[in-house]
């Protein structure tokens, strides 16, 4: 997957006529995205909590390779495991990995970006070079190498993906800080004796909220895809934990006799990512009037 | 004519489906093959043959390619019994210490030079020299001296009788190389006496061989033979179905089945390589024999075959060579017996079960993760918790060789001779004893006896005893042997599918 | 003298070049370290379990042969020294120098990236224009949904499904043939590039479309356009002369960025379609633990990336001179 970088968005003026949520559901893609994301997240949470029709790793060889039915909505695999339960648990795993990695890269990236943008000079140069290094390294290969280096687990996959998306957050945060640094109220805050670091986090950060929120939802969708690609190439979440990428990979060899094995995880993956993307697009429209969404 | 026409039409439709700006620019040439009756036969392989020196070739793809380029002193027949190759079956002295080989006359290398006893002596001496790092060095370790009394005769003197010597002299790892060409040159451009001569190689893409008209068995059937690298199984299936690849080997029955079509037939052949759950009896977890037997009794091997290999495999004991095969029913708990498993656990002082970790390779063979998952589920029924540690192939090999694991899901190579297969694992001085984790005085004695016994019936009895001890002690949990699937286009004639997916009959194969 | 130096080091171009060199050095160090932390080495990768039969002195010989016996710093410096003299290392598995391998692989990836970016622009810019022509209208919604759909389908899924369907239903499988280089068999080469370029192109058409749409809407609301419109400049001329030209800046930036990613990011597609490109070279090198192959190839990818970025920057500055002062 090619990683993308959004154009830095100028900070929105802190005036808003209606609450974000209400505006979001009035926006077409926002509404669809919210609904899809809610469905997927609910399924994923059920998967993580274990509230599923079947235990996702319970085998029942007598019921192997059954096509979808009332008992098994998405059919069963060669071990007689319920594919729906595995998809749900795989979604949970994706959500967890994507969530953790975006949380890590987002927090670290925004802090670094603010520091670079606010202090400038040597700090900016050093952070800039580090960001460039990570950018210039082919992203999937970087994740692959990191995932292969460490002990195979959900945590390490999350860390690998976090490193890949770190530079995006650095850049996204740095741009607006450059503009905000000279904004009147920041200058005023510094002038009345507030410490610089305090200024950064009390005045600068809240003003970038909308940009960061939008970037987080977009990055979440890329992280889901990257996790799936890593698993597909054999470097993702280890078995027996369900992972959508592994399920797609395994299903490919069986697709001629059991196409439902490919359909379940494939469709779940696409719906998940579409939901996140539409949610993100809707958020962007609502939070950033410049993007020219539905007004 | 008609056929070609139809292909063109299909091709246009395909281009239309993928309609883009580019489609118009792509003329439909090239795709439909214009290969003639003399070949090339295109053989799909899943990884490049990177090791072109036969003595150090360990990867199966390298062995497949080099098997067509090189010849050895002896070959194996379809029952894996040694038969004549470059030489007739040898005359053996009464004490079993001296083997005299007579070379076939008029054999030449593809560079035109004659293949005589000098080359044979050179090759075996080189294989035995540590500097060459040949993989067959250990299996030829009984060899004391090689002499070449005249151009057509070679005498191999042994330190001690070795019943596995003849088998050890078959295969590419003991191929005969020209003594006049340096190994460095052969590394990039092989020169052998096999049915096909090395023509060229494009790394990671293809290797082309051409007919060796002077091959000592007769004129090979194909004008040329191309090994084409297609990594992805799904892509390989597409290539077979569309006729761009003529032959390929799969180890997954469903993939093989999906390659089947009106133009592609699939032959099923047995493998000798065995799937096992290796336990390390000298680890603290498995030191107690009852703990190992509990695992043995808790596993239904049929179910492993059914789920991990989709039913395509045979439950097997330790020895899989056809002439010496173990009886899979001759073991403790031949059928799954959870009560027996629980009793063994109680005897071991672990009535509530225990926990261990198994290392599982990824990328080495397709069924590993599935075997692990099924065994994990089965052991859970007996209260035994098996944790799965997935490792990428080189990390797995590292850990496996170092012997730093409690248990391992493994697919181990087996040869035609049980001594070659198991001596290195289960004798106290074996190079892989650290990996196997089990040895005993009685096994050491039996292995020594087995290698010195040349009478086939007596020899078989010895290996039955070895097999029995390994099973009774549950040194490892032997699971099953898989199958290979050789897919071939119907235009391929005369190929004989034999056990272990050996490609030796490619020399007689023709294409229509 | 000192002030000239300061002037020179402070100059944006010098600074950018300096940063580029630092970036490449950083990439090299990172690659080097990652490789050494990966389990296994070239000996186990090539001997497999038979490495267990090697004696201590045989192992030592092999370590020396692969250069694994030297201290890490020395290994790195000797590789770096080689790079400066044009020696990118040697692959014993391919039996070729890494420079030769790259000379064959780089054009494949470059061709793929160029075709993909052209396809993406052909789809993305008109798509963005259509979407922006009436924001919020049905066509905008359709274009946006379509772009979201392709953005959301993973390349490994669309790639395998597409290739499988075409081969099964139409017997059309150009990627099963030996790869045909551009200069040797153009028709076959284009057939082999079609599907991978399509899959990649469509996946990056989406961000290009989004950028186009946003840029057009942005510029249309700017004062000078309003002024021009008020002055009575015809709508069509207005669009072409002012809006589109100004919107080009972000589109160029985004395309450059995507192109850079394509160079190293085509790994999955190259793998699925058996294209002997540079991504596959790295992946194979990683599998075979051929350190110099991976190090040199990643460096080449990074150099391409940095070059494309510099070029984009240059174009950017040419179009919009204000950037110089930043």
What is the CATH class designation of chain A? Mainly Alpha
- What is the helix fraction of residues of chain B, given as a range? 25-40%
Shape assignment of chain B = globular
Q: Which spans of chain A of ≥5 residues are poorly predicted at pLDDT below 50?
A: 1-16, 291-295
Q: Which class best fits the helix and strand makeup of chain A?
A: mainly alpha
Biggest sheet details of chain B: 11 strands, mixed
Rg result of chain B: 25 Å
Main sheet summary of chain A:
none
Distance between the termini of chain B: 15 Å
Helical fraction of chain A: 55-70%
CATH superfamily of chain A: MetI-like
Name the poorly predicted regions of chain B: 1-34
* Average predicted confidence as pLDDT of chain A: 81
Secondary structure tally, helices of chain B: 16
CA-CA gap between termini of chain A: 32 Å
Q: What general form of chain A does the structure show? A: elongated
Characterise the protein shown here:
The complex is a heterotrimer of chains A (295), B (512) and C (326). Chain A is mainly alpha-helical. Helix content of chain A is 69%, strand content 0%. The two termini of chain A are 32 Å apart. Chain B has 512 residues and is α+β, with helices and mostly antiparallel strands. Chain B is globular. Helix content of chain C is 77%, strand content 1%. Chain C is built from 14 helices and two strands. Chain C has a two-stranded antiparallel ribbon. At the B-C interface, α1, β10, α6 and α12 of B face α3, α4, α6, α8 and α9 of C. Chain C: It comes from Streptomyces shenzhenensis. Chain C: Keywords: Cell membrane, Membrane, Transmembrane, Transmembrane helix, Transport.
Salient structural properties:
heterotrimer; A: mainly alpha; MetI-like fold; 69% helix; C: 326 residues; mainly alpha; 2 domains; 14 helices; 2 strands; 1% strand; Glutathione ABC transporter permease GsiC (chain C); MetI-like_sf (chain C); transmembrane (chain C); BPD_transp_1_N (chain C); membrane (chain C)
Q: Secondary-structure blueprint of this entry?
A:
The complex is a heterotrimer of chains A (295), B (512) and C (326).
Chain A: H1 20-26, H2 28-49, H3 83-119, H4 121-136, H5 139-149, H6 154-181, H7 184-191, H8 196-207, H9 209-232, H10 244-254, H11 260-287
Helix pairs in contact in A: 1-11, 2-3, 2-11, 3-4, 3-6, 3-9, 3-11, 4-6, 5-6, 6-9, 7-8, 9-10, 9-11, 10-11
Chain B: H1 2-17, E1 41-45, H2 60-69, E2 74-76, E3 82-84, E4 91-92, E5 98-102, H3 117-128, E6 143-150, E7 153-158, H4 165-168, H5 183-188, E8 196-202, E9 206-211, E10 224-229, H6 233-241, E11 247-250, H7 253-259, E12 264-279, H8 289-298, H9 301-308, E13 313-315, H10 338-347, E14 355-362, H11 368-381, E15 385-392, H12 393-402, E16 407-412, H13 418-426, H14 433-436, H15 441-452, H16 456-472, E17 476-489, E18 492-493, E19 510-511
Parallel strand pairs in B: 1-10, 1-11, 14-15, 14-16
Antiparallel strand pairs in B: 2-3, 4-5, 5-7, 6-7, 8-9, 9-10, 11-17, 12-16, 12-17, 13-17, 18-19
Chain C: H1 2-10, H2 12-37, H3 42-47, H4 56-65, H5 72-84, E1 90-91, E2 96-97, H6 98-133, H7 138-152, H8 155-170, H9 186-220, H10 223-230, H11 235-265, H12 267-272, H13 278-288, H14 291-319
Helix pairs in contact in C: 2-14, 6-7, 6-9, 6-11, 7-9, 8-9, 9-11, 11-14, 13-14
């Amino acid at each position: 997957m090619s990683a993308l970088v959004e154009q830095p968005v100028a900070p929105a003026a802190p005036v808003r006529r209606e609450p974000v949520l209400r505006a979001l559901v009035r926006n077409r893609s926002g509404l669809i995205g919210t609904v899809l994301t809610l469905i997927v997240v609910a399924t994923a949470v059920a998967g993580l909590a274990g509230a599923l029709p079947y235990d996702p790793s319970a085998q029942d060889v007598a019921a192997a390779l059954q096509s979808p039915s009332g008992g098994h909505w998405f059919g069963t695999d060669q071990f007689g495991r319920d594919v729906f339960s595995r998809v749900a648990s795989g979604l949970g795993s994706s959500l967890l990995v994507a969530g953790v990695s975006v949380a890590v890269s987002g927090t670290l990236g925004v802090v670094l970006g603010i520091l670079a943008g606010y202090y400038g000079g040597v700090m900016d140069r050093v952070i800039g070079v580090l960001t460039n290094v990570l950018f210039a390294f082919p992203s999937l290969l970087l994740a692959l190498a990191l995932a292969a280096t460490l002990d195979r687990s959900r945590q390490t996959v999350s860390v690998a993906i976090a490193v890949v998306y770190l530079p995006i957050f650095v850049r996204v945060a740095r741009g607006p800080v450059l503009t905000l640094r000279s904004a009147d109220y920041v200058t005023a805050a510094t002038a009345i004796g507030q410490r610089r670091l305090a200024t950064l986090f009390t005045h600068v950060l809240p003003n970038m909220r909308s940009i960061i929120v939008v970037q987080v939802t977009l990055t979440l969708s890329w992280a889901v895809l990257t996790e799936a690609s890593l698993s597909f190439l054999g470097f993702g979440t280890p078995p027996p934990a369900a992972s959508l990428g592994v399920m797609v990979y395994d299903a490919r060899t069986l697709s001629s006799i059991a196409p439902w094995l490919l359909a379940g995880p494939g469709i779940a993956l696409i719906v998940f990512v579409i939901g996140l993307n539409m949610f993100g697009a809707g958020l962007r429209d609502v939070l950033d009037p410049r993007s020219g969404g539905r007004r | 004519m008609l056929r070609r026409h139809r292909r063109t039409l299909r091709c246009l439709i395909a281009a239309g489906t993928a309609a883009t700006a580019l489609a118009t620019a792509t003329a439909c040439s090239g795709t439909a093959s214009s290969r003639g009756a003399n070949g090339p036969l295109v053989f799909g392989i899943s990884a490049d043959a990177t090791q072109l020196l036969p003595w150090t070739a360990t990867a199966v793809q390298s062995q497949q390619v080099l098997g067509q380029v090189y010849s050895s002193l002896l070959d194996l027949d379809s029952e894996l019994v040694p038969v004549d190759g470059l030489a007739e079956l040898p005359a053996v002295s009464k004490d079993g210490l001296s083997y005299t080989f007579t070379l076939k006359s008029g054999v030449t290398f593809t560079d035109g030079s004659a293949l005589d006893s000098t080359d044979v002596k050179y090759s075996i001496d080189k294989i035995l020299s540590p500097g060459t790092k040949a993989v067959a060095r250990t299996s030829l370790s009984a060899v004391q001296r090689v002499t070449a009394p005249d151009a057509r005769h070679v005498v191999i003197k042994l330190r001690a009788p070795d019943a596995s010597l003849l088998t050890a002299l078959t295969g590419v790892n003991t191929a005969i190389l020209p003594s006049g060409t340096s190994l460095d040159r052969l590394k990039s451009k092989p020169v052998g006496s096999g049915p096909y001569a090395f023509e060229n190689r494009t790394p990671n893409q293809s290797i082309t061989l051409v007919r060796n008209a002077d091959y000592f068995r007769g004129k090979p059937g194909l004008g040329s033979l191309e090994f084409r690298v297609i990594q992805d199984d799904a892509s390989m299936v597409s290539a077979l179905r569309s006729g761009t690849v003529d032959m390929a080997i799969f180890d997954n029955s469903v993939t093989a089945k999906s390659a089947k079509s009106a133009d592609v037939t699939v032959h099923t052949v047995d493998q000798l390589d065995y799937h096992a759950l290796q336990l390390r009896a000298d680890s603290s977890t498995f030191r107690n024999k009852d703990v190992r037997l509990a695992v043995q009794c808790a596993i239904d091997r049929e179910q492993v075959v059914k789920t991990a290999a989709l039913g395509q495999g045979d439950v097997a004991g330790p020895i899989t060579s056809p002439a010496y095969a173990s009886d899979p029913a001759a073991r403790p708990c031949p059928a799954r017996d959870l009560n027996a498993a629980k009793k063994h656990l109680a005897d071991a002082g672990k009535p509530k079960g225990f926990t261990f970790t198994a290392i599982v390779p990824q990328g080495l063979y397709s069924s590993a993760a599935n075997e692990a998952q099924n065994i994990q589920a089965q052991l859970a029924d007996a209260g035994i918790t098996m944790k799965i540690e997935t490792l990428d192939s080189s990390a797995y090999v590292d850990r496996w060789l170092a012997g730093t694991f409690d248990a391992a899901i493994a697919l181990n190579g087996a040869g035609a001779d049980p001594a070659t297969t198991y001596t290195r694992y289960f004798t106290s001085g074996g190079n892989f004893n650290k990996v196997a984790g089990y040895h005993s005085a009685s096994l050491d004695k039996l292995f020594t006896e087995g290698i010195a016994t040349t009478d086939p019936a007596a020899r078989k009895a010895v290996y039955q005893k070895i097999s029995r001890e390994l099973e009774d002690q549950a040194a490892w949990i032997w699971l099953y042997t898989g199958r290979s699937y050789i897919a071939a286009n119907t235009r391929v004639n005369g190929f004989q599918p034999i056990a272990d997916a050996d490609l030796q009959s490619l020399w007689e194969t023709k294409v229509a | 003298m000192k002030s000239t130096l300061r002037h020179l080091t402070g100059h944006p171009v010098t600074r950018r070049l300096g940063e580029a060199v630092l970036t490449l050095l950083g990439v090299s160090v990172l690659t080097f370290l990652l490789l050494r932390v990966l389990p296994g080495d070239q000996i186990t990768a090539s001997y497999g379990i038979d490495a267990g039969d090697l004696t201590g002195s045989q192992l030592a010989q092999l370590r020396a042969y692969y250069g694994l016996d030297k201290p890490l710093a020395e290994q790195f410096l000797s590789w770096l020294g080689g790079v400066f003299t044009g020696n990118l290392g040697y692959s014993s598995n391919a039996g070729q120098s890494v420079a030769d391998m790259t000379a064959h692989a780089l054009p494949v990836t470059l061709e793929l990236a160029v075709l993909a970016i052209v396809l993406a622009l052909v789809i993305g810019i008109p798509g963005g224009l259509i979407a922006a022509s009436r924001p919020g209208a049905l066509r905008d919604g359709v274009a946006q949904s379509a772009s979201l759909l392709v953005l959301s389908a993973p390349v490994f899924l669309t790639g395998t499904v597409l290739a499988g369907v075409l081969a099964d239903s139409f017997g059309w499988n150009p990627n099963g043939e030996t790869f045909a280089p551009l200069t040797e068999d153009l028709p076959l080469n284009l057939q082999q590039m079609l599907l991978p370029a399509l899959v990649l192109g469509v996946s990056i058409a989406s961000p290009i479309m989004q950028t186009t749409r946003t840029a057009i809407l942005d510029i249309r609301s700017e004062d000078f356009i309003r002024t021009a419109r008020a002055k009575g400049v015809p709508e069509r001329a207005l669009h072409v002369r002012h809006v589109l030209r100004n919107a080009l800046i972000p589109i160029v930036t985004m395309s450059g960025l995507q192109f850079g990613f394509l160079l190293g990011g085509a790994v999955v597609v190259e793998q699925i379609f058996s294209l002997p490109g540079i991504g596959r070279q790295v992946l194979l090198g990683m599998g075979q633990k051929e350190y110099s192959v991976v190090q040199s190839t990643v460096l080449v990818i990074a150099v391409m990336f940095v070059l494309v970025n510099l070029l984009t920057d240059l174009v950017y500055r040419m179009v919009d001179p204000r950037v110089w002062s930043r």
